[in-house]
Amino acid sequence: MEGFKKFLMRGNVVELAVAVVIGTAFTAIVTAFTEAIISPLLTMAFDADELAGATIGPFKIGLLIAAIINFLVIAAVVYFALVLPMTKLKEHQDRRRGVSPEEPAETDVDVLQDIRELLRAQQAPGAAPGPAPRA
Fold this sequence. Notes:
Blueprint: H1 2-9, H2 11-45, H3 48-52, H4 61-97, H5 108-123
Helix pairs in contact: 2-4
């Protein structure tokens, strides 16, 4: 029982549980916003029921198109209502604190290029033979 208690109290399990609860609550907000504001705007542009009923032969292509539109609308709502404002807020707070943006992290390609240059330098005339340095 002690092991089970430790498992439950680990940060990952608790964080995951909180994320699921918050995600569920946020889904309700996004769904309500989409149904209350976005869907009526789309309905004014075209008949969504007619689109969902569109078929090509035996394929209900309208359902796929409606799902894609729904996904794009929800993604846009999440981006413009949450991601973009939070990014701007973080940038503003960082500027206020005097924190400069981080330099881009060194990539695998950069590391491999450095290794290649070290190997070339070792093989150059006048370089002492020996094993390659470990990175």
